[in-house]
Structures are given as structure tokens and as C-alpha cells.
Design a protein that fits this description.
Number of helices: 25
Largest sheet: 2 strands, antiparallel
Number of strands: 2
Order of helices and strands: HHHHHHHHHHHHHHHHHHHHHHHEEHH
Helix content: 55-70%
Length: 504
């Protein structure tokens, strides 16, 4: 059932309120106000809002006798609506009434010089080029062939005879977008590089050349495959020139010395940079090594660190450990809300991939409480779980339910009493650990980072997080009220469940 707030926005939107129409679209995109996520409905309301803003702009320009401005010089209101449009998953609206509007808008945004262009370019490239979306592309080709209106089918002029009816022409433009995204620093750069790798030619020539290298170690075949654009060939050639023969040996011997000359290292860097541009994480890691070589004329510690960081972002285990260890050494200088949190994340990522040194370092960065039965809260937490499992039977108040969840969390992570009462349960969990920070009430108590070791710990955090997210703000009251309630809940839990435990 729709919430009252949603119904109010819906009523205003139907009356033509532009702001309400945009808020309604946002709700359909994000699920706010418990609204079902429906991109097609969001696009319909964004079209209404866009047309209202456009009509208002045209009216003002007519009175001033001025030409309609391009998107690059659009008003703040128009730019805002265009940003919202670029956030709509276009492929999910293909069969909706507003798809034509969305299709045209995405092409206009993609060709414009604005901050939403990257998002529009990526969505168009992904929709038109991803090999896994061939069925969607076939449906799109049929839709395009049925449209009348020339170049307006995609919102700008491409010239040529009937080009607007040719999906391959649009795919060519989308490929240009993809190269542009891959060569720039945007949130879509990594995804663009991964898609480019998928699109690399897999014809018989490349397969034959690579097969010749694998079976016969034919150097000429390896060079030709690299020149034809095969990423693995570029990487292999670069590693050989740098005397880093395999990605495996590179990970196991990151500090291995090389006797290669500067000329060979420059050639290696050239091929590795090409592979790195394709999104290959081993290439980025190897480049980081080369930039640290004393005999390399391009020696640069800063560039080396940048390459290692890119490899870590792409999931290279040794690079992740290196990045985490570096952040841990520099933790006193790194500006972050909780000291060591960034370092712990990267070390944990490396440990998840089996880096032996990461496990040892992680034990220094994160605390651990893998056995809740050894914690002082175990008895009360056991009773609290029983109470939560039968809360309807015991008719627990909402405040008591939240306190029971606190007891379960306190036992799972061995919290102190102050941490148990004051921690923000809904904000505890990060991907790899919990951050217990109560400095808002007790400034002298330092935050703690505690590793999430078990499935039960994750489950407890998930259940408690949902309970607190659905509760009213300030329902628990201040510290004095929580202490008083805790004493009452503790007495009730012991009185209700301790006898059953004794009998058992």
C-alpha cells in the first residue's frame, strides 16, 4: 500500500508540479516511500517534467526573441532533469510508452558537454555493444526500423541516407563513446575497459597466432598477436621484456631484481601500458614494478604507487595487500574518520584471495571475536534471541526489541557496556568489519575495528540493521533512559528464561 507522503507527491505531480514529478520519478528509481522500482514509470514522469521545463524555456525565449539554447548552455532546471534521465536504466524501458523520449534524450545528453554525458554514453554503449544483450539489440533494431522521423529517432543528426534505420551506424557511434570512457577517469572507466576486452576480435588469425605462441613459443607470433590488439599477448610480451615471465611469478616475487636495460624496460612499459588500458590488472601491477626499477629512466615512485593502486582497484591480490600495508604504515598521516579503516579494507581483500602475509597483518589491524560463547554477554544474548524469536507471544515493546538486538550484537562482537548502549547499530557494518565509534557521547574512548568472522555475525548485523532502520527516530531515548530500560529488560530476561535454562 502506498504511503501518504507518496500519494501527496503523486497528486501534486498529476496537477503539473514539476518538482513533484521529479520526486515521483526519483521514488520509482530508488524505491523511496516503499515504492516499487519501476524505471518505465520514472521515465514517463521525467518526460512530463522535461516538457514542462522546455515549454517554459521556449515561452521565455519567444518573448525575448532569442534562439533555443543548446544543452551545453541549458538552465539549471533543465540540467537537473537531464541528470535524472541519465540515471534511468534505459534498457529496462524498451517496451514502455516513454522509450522514444528516453532514447532521444540519451543521445542528446551523450553528445553534449555536461556532467551527465558519461552516464548516458555508458548506457548506450552497454546496450548497443554488450554481446550478452543480443536479444535486446535485436528488439531495438526492430523498433528503430519502425520509426518515422529521420534522425530524430536518436536525437541528433548523423547524416547519410537512412542511417537512422541502421543499428550498425549507432553501434559505431557507441564504440566511440566506449573508447572515450576507457581513456578518461570516470565511474564508468573500468566497466568500459572490461566491455572493450569482451569486444576484442576472436577471429581465426588471432587464435592461430596465440596458439602458435603457446605450443611453439613462436616469438614472431606473439609479437604479431600483440600488434593486432590481443590483450593477453600485450601482457605476455611486456612481462617477458621486463623479465617478469608470468603473472604468477610476479605475484610471488614482487621484488625480484632484473638485469634488463633501460631500453628493454621502456619497450616492456610500452606493451604493458597498452594492456593496462584494456583493464588488465596484472599489467598495472607489472607497470608498478617497472616504475620502481632504478635502471628505468622513467623511475617514479608516485607513478608506481598509482599503478599499484589501479591494480588493487581491479582486484590484484598482491597489489591490494601492498596498498593496505602502505595505508597502515601511514595511518597517522591519512585523514579518515576512523584510523586504519581504509588499510583494513585492502588487507582484508588480499586475505580473502589467499595472500599469506595479509592474514598476519590483518590480526594487527582488526580485533576479532569469533567465539561468542566465551563473551560475557552470552547468557543474556541467548535469552534475548529467544525473546526475539517469540516477541509476538511475549508482546515486547519496540524499545525492548531494539535492546534485545543490541544484546545479540554486543555478544557477537564482545562490546563493552558503554559500546553496547551507545553504538549506532544501523551504521556498524562495513563490508569487512564493524566500526564501533561512540565518541559522540564519550570522546575519550577510541573507535574499535572488529572483523566479521562468521556467518552468524553477518546475519545478526543484517537482522538488527533492518530492525533499527524501520524504527522511529530517537525511539531509544538518551543514555540514562537506555540504562534504566536495560536493567528492566535484564531482570525480565533472567526471570523469564533462566528457569527454563536450568531445567534444560
Amino acid at each position: 500500500m502506498a504511503s501518504r507522503e507518496f500519494l501527496k507527491i503523486l497528486q501534486s505531480a498529476r496537477l503539473g508540479d514539476v518538482s513533484a514529478q521529479q520526486n515521483l520519478a526519483s521514488a520509482y528509481l530508488t524505491g523511496a516511500f516503499k515504492t516499487p522500482i519501476q524505471p518505465a514509470n520514472a521515465l514517463i514522469w521525467l518526460e512530463k517534467s522535461y516538457l514542462s521545463i522546455q515549454n517554459q524555456t521556449v515561452s521565455q525565449l519567444s518573448s525575448a526573441n532569442t534562439e533555443t539554447p543548446e544543452l551545453d548552455h541549458a538552465s539549471p532546471e533543465m540540467l537537473g532533469i537531464l541528470r535524472q534521465i541519465s540515471a534511468v536504466p534505459l534498457q529496462d524501458t524498451l517496451h514502455s510508452a516513454a522509450f522514444s523520449f528516453g532514447w532521444q534524450s540519451f543521445w542528446r545528453i551523450a553528445k553534449a558537454n555536461m556532467d551527465a554525458s558519461d552516464a548516458a554514453q555508458w548506457q548506450l554503449a552497454d546496450l548497443l555493444l554488450d554481446p550478452s544483450k543480443r536479444e535486446l539489440q535485436s528488439e531495438l533494431a526492430i523498433w528503430i526500423s519502425r520509426q518515422d522521423g529521420g534522425d530524430d529517432v536518436f536525437g541528433f543528426s548523423v547524416g547519410g541516407n537512412g542511417v537512422h534505420r541502421d543499428l550498425s551506424a549507432l553501434q559505431k557511434l557507441a564504440k566511440e563513446f566506449l573508447f572515450n570512457l576507457a581513456d578518461s577517469e570516470t565511474p564508468f572507466t573500468t566497466s568500459a575497459k572490461e566491455l572493450l576486452i569482451k569486444l576484442q576480435p576472436k577471429d581465426e588469425t588471432l587464435s592461430s597466432l596465440w596458439g602458435s605462441w603457446l605450443s611453439e613459443h613462436n616469438e614472431a607470433a606473439l609479437m604479431q598477436a600483440a600488434e593486432l590488439g590481443l590483450t593477453i599477448a600485450k601482457l605476455t610480451l611486456g612481462l617477458r621484456l621486463a623479465q617478469l615471465n608470468t603473472a604468477h611469478s610476479l605475484e610471488n616475487n614482487p621484488g625480484e631484481p632484473t638485469t634488463k636495460s633501460n631500453a628493454s624496460l621502456k619497450k616492456a612499459a610500452y606493451w604493458l601500458e597498452l594492456a593496462a588500458k584494456d583493464g588488465d590488472r596484472d599489467a598495472w601491477f607489472a607497470l608498478g614494478e617497472i616504475y620502481r626499477r632504478p635502471q628505468f629512466s622513467g623511475y617514479s615512485a608516485a607513478e608506481s604507487d598509482r599503478c599499484f593502486d589501479r591494480a588493487a582497484d581491479l582486484g590484484h591480490a598482491q597489489a591490494q595487500f601492498r596498498r593496505g600495508a602502505s595505508l597502515w604504515r601511514k595511518r597517522e598521516k591519512v585523514v579518515e574518520k576512523v584510523r586504519g579503516l581504509q588499510a583494513s579494507y585492502w588487507i582484508w581483500q588480499a586475505q580473502q584471495q589467499g595472500v599469506a602475509e595479509a592474514k598476519e597483518l590483518l590480526s594487527k589491524v582488526l580485533e576479532s571475536a569469533p567465539n561468542p560463547k566465551q563473551n560475557g554477554w552470552y547468557g543474556l544474548a541467548t535469552y534475548a534471541e529467544k525473546a526475539l524469536n517469540h516477541h509476538a507471544e511475549h508482546q515486547l515493546d519496540a524499545e525492548w526489541v531494539l535492546l534485545c538486538h543490541r544484546l545479540v550484537i554486543a555478544n557477537q562482537f564482545n562490546l563493552s557496556k558503554a559500546e553496547f548502549l551507545l553504538c549506532d547499530v544501523s551504521q556498524l557494518q562495513h563490508e569487512h568489519c564493524v566500526v564501533v565509534d561512540i565518541r559522540h557521547e564519550l570522546p575519550k574512548i577510541l573507535p574499535r575495528l572488529i572483523q566479521i568472522d562468521t556467518t552468524q555475525q553477518r546475519r545478526s548485523l543484517l537482522v538488527a540493521g533492518k530492525a533499527f532502520a524501520n524504527s522511529e527516530t530517537n525511539l531509544e531515548g538518551n543514555l540514562r533512559q537506555r540504562r534504566y530500560r536495560f536493567d528492566r529488560v535484564m531482570e525480565w530476561l533472567n526471570a523469564t528464561f533462566a528457569q527454563d535454562q536450568t531445567l534444560a
